[in-house]
Design a protein that fits this description.
Length: 323
Amino acid sequence: MTVKIFDTPDVQAFVKTVAGFDKTGGNDRAKQIVHRLVGDLFKLIDDFDVTEEEYWAGVNLLNALGSQTQFGLLSPGLGFDHFLDMRQDAIDAEAKRTGGTPRTIEGPLYVAGAPEAEGFARLDDEATEGETMWLTGQVRDVNGTPIAGAKVEIWHANSQGGYSFFDPSQSEYNLRRTIYADSDGRYTARSIIPSGYGVPEGAPTDVVLKSLGRHGERPAHIHYFVSAPGHQHLTTQINLAGDPYTYDDFAFATREELVVPAERIDDPAEIAKRDLDGPFSHVVFDVELAQTDAAELQVRHARPRAKEDDQDLASQLAGTAKV
Ligand code: MBD
Ligand code: FE
């Protein structure tokens, strides 16, 4: 097929009309972005001779993604979350903000409002099966000074790769806690070793990944938000070493500095010291927070929270546009 109409005056004028350029109301930035987005997609249809069948299959796929709230899952799969991190890293580098534990993506499964504790928390309800994990570390600034009272939010999957709130078989806030570091900046969590997450078989996100010859697996990982006044808010994760997907994460979240071993301990003295009933896996993750004077850098949650799903769309969009 040789039909190419994108560059014609009619189509160029049409894209401007679609984007509301001839209207006084609305939002200028929205107009510019929609103009670029629709124009680029029109051009793509022209360049690839996208058929009507292909176009409507795409519309059906978007509907399926939306109805199953999977855009937040496809987003890391298509690298958008990691791309935003790369941009944030470049912004830090340009501002000469160096040092600190590297950030990596939040993912779609954080839930606000987890129970809070000081120094130590047990993350699992006692009914959760799995190998006992003893997770501990120290929060410091870039000069190595411990940050007393730093806020450490931790969330992870169970041994089936499922997250509480999204997996109705788990109790409320299972494997989710906020721990305030002790006077020496230390936090300790007792939990169970998580398994990797896999995109549900046959789900719209899986359909997209399969069409690219890709899988939807993540390695075993543990999510963190770490924050303290005067420091840059850190969103990160650790990836457990030795998982087949540690370096083959569909969400592109692995960073070398964030790969940590889980060390099996069966010394009875170490078990007794922690009041455990048997062997456990020891995971250590120390965190370094970069300094900041800029108040806005302490807030990194642009993403609408799962608990806010019942908020209306306009106020969610308004809330995210401000960040
Ligand atoms: C997860 O647990 C996750 O962290 C990401 C980024 C995507 C899907 C599931
Ligand atoms: Fe996750």
